[in-house]
Design a protein that fits this description.
The chain is of the alpha/beta class and 337 residues long. The protein has 3 domains: 44 residues, 434 Repressor (Amino-terminal Domain) (Orthogonal Bundle); 134 residues, Rossmann fold; 130 residues, Response regulator (Rossmann fold). Helix content is 42%, strand content 15%. The strands form 3 sheets. The protein has a 6-stranded parallel sheet with strand order 2-1-3-4-5-11, with helices on both faces. A 4-stranded parallel sheet has the order 7-6-8-9, with helices on both faces. Strands 10-12 form a two-stranded antiparallel ribbon. α10 packs across α11. The longest helix is centred in the middle third of the chain and has 16 residues. The protein is elongated and about 90 Å long.
């Protein structure tokens, strides 16, 4: 038999007072005497009464919940960002509703609807590799629900964004390869629609320009971040009449796949080809040789993004500003270069 859920009606009946008095006593209303408050709280505890937070949130027009939409959980990057965001949200008394889009635009649209249906007070978003249309995210703005982008951001929306200095990180990575004597540095980048892909490509090119190295278009490839395809692109680069002697990749998982393929082909790393990734993924110190990479402050990204979101939630919409925060990266030189 289903157990009866204790309500304020049960408490009111036993104490012979109105349910509105019970409701006010539970929320600490000043119009209720201390004696009545004590009696209500005591009985509520004895009956194991649980407040209907949904009803309370509907009355207050706040859910005290923020949403987080990320494109994937395959790498350690997004879980680490989420941990930083949760830390800030929790201290402020907010719950976190998390969804991942599996790099699918359609799933991202569905996730956005779930956030709206759950009446989140604000949402943090990192876009999928497929996202080109932002109508599902503009809905939040139209409804007065704050939104903050991080990592993979939408340039078309005037809202707060948190990114790392992708340009500088890429520049330092390629500069390192140049200074260690590499002459033909290939770049396997991500989708050109993504802000991070554009900035890392710019950093790659500008480092080559600074050291008067030619920008060879046959050494620059972009792909859709489907890791199963990495070996196809690496094989193409290796089969060139003049194959590269170094490789800078859009992220660490891409570098891992590239290294595994090259090692299977008997290519020595870094003697024949040096490799540098981006993100300092957990596996970067486990693969052999250990991967040289550009570290991102993942925890801080989440913290900063969550704080920007809470600042908007706790202020009037007329005060919202499209703050753009850029966090620093760090080049970690290891065995692969």
């Amino acid at each position: 038999m289903k157990k009866h859920q204790i309500t304020i009606v049960d408490i009111a009946r036993q104490l012979n007072i109105s349910k509105s008095t019970v409701s006010r006593a539970l929320t600490g209303h000043p119009r209720v005497s201390e004696k009545t408050k004590e009696a209500v709280l005591k009985l509520a505890g004895e009956l194991d009464y649980q407040r209907n937070m949904l009803a309370i949130n509907l009355m207050s027009s706040q859910s005290h919940t923020i949403g987080i939409i990320v494109p994937e959980f395959v790498t350690s990057f997004f879980p680490m960002v989420i941990m930083g965001a949760q830390e800030v949200a929790s201290k402020a008394g907010y719950n976190v509703l998390i969804s991942q889009s599996n790099e699918s635009y359609e799933t991202e649209v569905a996730n956005a609807k779930v956030m709206l249906d759950n009446r989140v007070d604000g949402v943090l978003v990192s876009l999928t590799r497929e996202t080109r249309n932002y109508d599902h995210l503009n809905v939040f703005q139209r409804k007065g629900i704050p939104i903050v982008f991080f990592n993979r951001v939408c340039d078309d929306m005037q809202v707060p964004k948190v990114v790392v200095d992708d340009y500088e990180g890429a520049f330092k990575a390629v500069e390192h390869l140049i200074l260690t004597g590499r002459k033909r540095i290939a770049h396997l980048g991500g989708p050109t629609s993504l802000h991070v892909s554009k900035k890392r490509l710019e950093g790659y090119k500008d480092a080559l320009r600074k050291y008067s190295q030619p920008i060879d278009q046959e050494l620059i490839l972009d792909y859709d971040l489907n890791l199963d395809k990495v070996k196809i692109y690496i094989k193409h680069l290796l089969d060139l009449p003049q194959p590269p002697d170094a490789l800078f990749t859009i992220n660490d998982p891409t570098a891992f796949e590239a290294m595994l393929f090259m090692k299977a082909k008997g290519i020595k790393i870094p003697e024949q080809i040096a490799v540098v990734g981006f993100s300092n993924n957990y596996g970067s110190t486990l693969i052999e040789p250990r991967l040289t990479t550009v570290a991102q402050p993942t925890h801080e990204i989440g913290q900063v993004a969550a704080q920007l979101l809470l600042d908007q939630i706790n202020s009037d919409a007329s005060e919202w500003k499209p703050i753009y925060r850029v966090l620093k990266t760090e080049l970690l030189v290891r065995g692969s270069s």
